[in-house]
Amino acid sequence: MQPELHTHADIYSKQFPTFGRPKVIGYIGLENLMFAKCVQNKKVQFDLNLHSEKAIRKPNDRDVKLDDLSYFLVQNETRLDFPLETQLNNCKIFCYRGLMTCVACTPYENREPWKIVAILHKGNIYLCARDTEEKLIQKRNMTEQDQKFTSWGYKFEQYMLSEHPDSEPNPDVPVDETKEFSLVLTTNLNQHTIVYGAEMDGIRCDKSSGPPAPDAERGAEEIINYLSDKEFVELKTNRHIQFARQETSFKRFKTKKWWCQSFLVGIDTILCGFRDDNGIVEELKVFPVRELAKMSERFWKPNVCFNFLDTFFTFVKRCLSRKIKHLHGEQGLKNLQMLPMISLLLEWKPGMPVMVSENYAYEDDPIFPQYFLDNYRKSL
């Protein structure tokens, strides 16, 4: 019988698990690093439709695999010098922040199913979200209005962020939605060591004259020290809250995701632009991340989210162990570095437990670029 993981919130209501403050170990797209000079409650008039007809759109059918993280790992393998683990429990877990947010919110989710591939490769565990059938249909049927909502978020960032700490934002140009800056971080959740990429909006420079931008010609360690010392801010947009049901929806759904996203990368402040139905932002409001859970405690609890995330990682390792023993016997668990790639598919639908399938074929849906397979830990 295949193992299952139950998701009911009551199961995970014990105290908050041990979670270390995330440590920056790298970056992707330094040329796209941005800065926020205005992080305050304020009345504004931002037209999110400005130059929308000329915007460079991010494809809505984009398939997020592990390309960026894979290239980062190859390029920084010597510098990072990750040890070769021999015990499955000690294997590092590599993924993106979005996957962890999705998993952590599962005990309170009642609408969006998910599908995740887990791969053991040369002693590391890689997790990658895949599109469900529902998501593929949603992408195919994405309306012009859906695209507009997505683009408004990028335009809001353009109103709030500038390329240098001492310059002003310039929204009077079309947005390039494909530009991204990401941090690569590591932390521990109980006994699990996680390495993950996370797209970041910008560095706060509203409390002082502003930190100088990092020189891309400097060494990686110097740039990482610079980034580690800075406070990032998360930018969001939301429709004006006018009715009780809108406030309930905001606290039940939005705050949970916002809190998870920010907490996972050590962000303390979210700045939200509240807009009308025509895409005009009229108010900026600052949300301290620690306050989100307090204002929404009727609907969700942080300890439940992170206890489930911890249990999910344990479940993945248990399922991989089961498959290794089935294919290679107990001896396989003592020789992880030399095992061929081991893969699983984990699926969840609202109201159901997490199900695992051992029949996932990597060749039918590869999540790594060939460059990574050819070069990472080449000596093994």
UniProtKB/TrEMBL annotation:
Keyword annotations: Hydrolase, Metal-binding, Nuclease, Nucleotide-binding, Nucleus, RNA-binding
Subcellular location, principal: nucleus
Keyword Nuclease: yes
Cofactor: a divalent metal cation
E.C. number: 3.6.1.-
Domain RAI1-like: 42-322
Classification via Pfam families: RAI1
Family: Belongs to the DXO/Dom3Z family.
Function: Decapping enzyme for NAD-capped RNAs: specifically hydrolyzes the nicotinamide adenine dinucleotide (NAD) cap from a subset of RNAs by removing the entire NAD moiety from the 5'-end of an NAD-capped RNA.
Protein name, as recorded: Decapping nuclease
UniProt source species: Loxostege sticticalis (Beet webworm moth)
